[in-house]
Amino acid sequence: MSFSVTDHQNSKRVRVIKFKESDLDRLIFPFKKHTTISLEYKPFSRFSLAKSLDEVFNNNLGKELTKILNDRQTGTVVVEPEMSNKKFDKDFLVKLSTGLAYLVGNPNFDSMTGKYYARFYVKHQDSSDSYLRKAYTNLDLHTDGTYVKEKTDWLIMTKMEEQGVSGGESVILHLDDWEHLDELSNNPVGQQNFTWGSPKSKNIDYKVEHPVFKKDKNGKPIISYIDQFPEPKNMEQGLFLQRLSDCLEESKNKIEFPLPVGSTIFSNNYFWLHGRKPFKENTNLSRELLRIRGTFFN
Questions:
Q1: pTM exceeds 0.85 for this model
Q2: pLDDT at 129
Q3: Residue 60 — φ and ψ, nearest 5°?
Q4: Residue 36's domain is classified under what CATH number?
Q5: Which one of 11, 120, 209, 266 is least enclosed by Cβ atoms within 10 Å?
Q6: 267 within domain boundaries
Q7: How far apart, in whole angstroms, are the C-alpha atoms of residue 38 and residue 48?
Q8: pLDDT for the residue 200
Q9: Is residue 186 part of a domain?
């Protein structure tokens, strides 16, 4: 009834939590109480499910996740469940991801899907209006929630399944490891209000304004940025964004690694940026991801 916590092999900033299959077995019965439909329609059921998850681990999992995610020295955890058996299907992964989310906070409403979570595919052919589904294009480093009014403290991404995949590794960067942090976070342009919109698929009918860089309660820089959605008002803002994009993508301190199927990346959204390398072309390419993003409990 315990989970292990270790450093990721690629970075001491990233923690890895592993669940044994014998402990996951103990979740099958309490998880069966909740269908995915009931979780979508009855928000209180998500708290019940999260409590069942925490109890399997002696009520220590939620505390550990909250500690890691709020620690500026770490702030990202990769959750790796040991799931070799087909009894752990995609519904189980939806429930496990839901439990992880509700142990630390409240998910935001995801306008793209009309639920508290989103599930989407990256495939060989794509006609969408977002880089999110462009398999053969680099998904540049960014944070989530740049174009919505809600706060976005954290982000969960769970790999549900994949086939025909080569490439597409996860890429993350801790703000404090970025070589150009001082230069760009202290640039007055980065502290101006930028207008942020979104493509039609996001189902957001408004725009928001906020700077790229702010300070947290300890005076440390935090970032809210994605390359596709800012609408620069003048040459100064446009050139600042180009410099920002170039410096992020050229960073030698990015962490790259493949995420195993069934695993979850859980990150603080203020000082971690995330992206994805391009896939190698394959007509059979298919990857399904689940996303939850939200705010910490007060």
A1: yes
A2: 76
A3: -105, -15
A4: 3.60.130.10
A5: 209
A6: yes
A7: 12
A8: 87
A9: no
